[in-house]
Design brief:
- By secondary structure, the chain is α/β, with parallel strands linked by helices.
- It has 2 domains: about 5-210, DHBP synthase (Alpha-Beta Complex), CATH 3.90.870; about 235-325, Rossmann fold (3-Layer(aba) Sandwich).
- Helices cover about 35% and strands about 15% of the residues.
- The protein has a 10-stranded mixed sheet, sandwiched between helices. The chain has a 4-stranded parallel sheet with strand order 11-14-12-13, with helices on both faces.
- Helix 1 (about 5-15) packs across helix 6.
- The chain is globular.
- The structure holds threonylcarbamoyladenylate and magnesium ion.
- The site of threonylcarbamoyladenylate has 29 residues, from strand 4 and strand 5.
């Protein structure tokens, strides 16, 4: 899944012309536009059906671009970049005055990230060569607003296919859930969205565990809306020890369930579509969105997800599942 030279050229040409290009990253696919071009950024919101006051993450090729986009960057932010970039970490920093409101949702901060994906990095480098040394690509996840984030090029096509001129295929995403977001614009770093980089990884760099502040319904971080990452089919979390009883009772009522489990394989003779995901949080995150998408397509009345272990390592996937449950069944 290595794009050709012609693919990269076409992607850069489209971005330079103010068009959208879906791009692979290590977390999820992004819907990219030239971050310095408000008219191009506006097309992202139109394609996603996303409210315009939701800020976007600007993806850049390297650390040297940071001062172009942000000011008053605290030491702690540089330390986090040193440790985790390129990688699944987004930093919220005070923005430079010129950064378009279209990107920041009118806030005085900007989200920045150097993605850890060779195709994204190659595209960013080529784009910066033509559009200006520190040019960036604004990109939210490449899904319709509120829906499951795409982790393959085929998912993007399913979500946005006719609405965008190009999907740059970089294969399946390595991480599978969105980046960890850390706000460094207000003094002490605060985690706004948990992700693959867990609190203990941040603690190893910061020397202390950062506060986590994932407000329900606040527009600062759209992924923090209670209903998000949602399939069209209703979704319910059920404890592992109650799973079989629950499925039997649903079956007696005539309800068709699709199951996503991590500790129990299906029993012989069970009629349910059943996905057994890895029982570790990293493997689980990698497969989760694809599994939700597949189960959404089975025609089941209810997606039943086995509840996750409560320990800290599962925080990020537990967060996504809670929001998926809150938003499910509204399509
Ligand atoms: O892994 C990711 O972060 C992916 C890939 C494509 O990079 N992107 C992604 O974008 O998840 P999106 O738009 O779906 O989520 C980005 C989150 C949003 O919740 C947005 O509100 C928040 O980042 N964000 C961006 N800029 C912000 C800012 N200045 N202040 C607070 N939150 C911000
Ligand atoms: Mg998103």
């Amino acid at each position: 899944m290595i794009p050709s030279d012609a693919d990269y050229r076409r992607a850069v040409k489209l971005l330079r012309a103010g068009e959208l290009v879906a791009i692979p990253t290590e977390t999820v696919y992004g819907l990219g536009a030239d971050a310095a071009n408000p008219a191009a950024v506006a097309k992202i919101f139109a394609a996603k059906g996303r409210p315009a006051d939701h800020p976007l993450i600007v993806h850049v090729a390297g650390h040297d671009a940071v001062d172009h986009w942000a000011e008053q960057v605290p030491d702690v932010a540089w330390e986090l970049m040193e440790s985790f970039w390129p990688g699944p970490l987004t930093l919220i920093l005070k923005k430079q005055a010129w950064v378009p409101d279209a990107v920041t949702g009118g806030q005085d901060t900007v989200g920045l990230r150097v993605p850890g994906h060779p195709v994204a990095l190659e595209l960013l480098r080529r784009f910066a060569r033509e559009a200006g040394e520190h040019a960036g690509i604004a990109a939210p996840s490449a899904n319709r607003f509120g829906r499951i984030s795409p982790t393959t090029a085929a998912h993007v096509a399913e979500e946005l296919g006719e609405r965008i001129p190009m999907i740059l295929d970089g294969g399946p995403c390595r991480v599978g859930i969105e980046s960890t977001i850390v706000d460094c614009s207000r003094g002490e770093p605060v985690v706004l969205r948990p992700g693959h980089i867990a609190p203990e990884h941040l603690e190893a760099v910061l020397g202390r565990r950062p506060a986590i502040e994932t407000a329900q319904g606040a527009p600062r971080v759209s992924g923090s809306l209670a209903a998000h990452y949602a399939p069209r089919t209703p979704l319910r979390l059920v404890a592992g020890e109650r799973l079989l009883d629950f499925l039997n009772s649903q079956r007696h009522r005539g309800g068709v369930c699709a199951v996503i489990a991590h500790s129990q394989p299906p029993q012989a003779g069970m009629p349910h579509p059943w996905r057994l995901l890895p029982a570790d949080p990293v493997g689980y995150a990698h497969d989760l969105y694809g599994a939700l998408r597949d189960m959404d397509h089975t025609g089941a009345d209810l997606i039943v997800v086995e509840s996750l272990p409560g320990d800290a390592a599962w925080t990020a996937v537990a967060d996504r599942l809670r929001r998926a449950a809150a938003g499910a069944g509204q399509g």
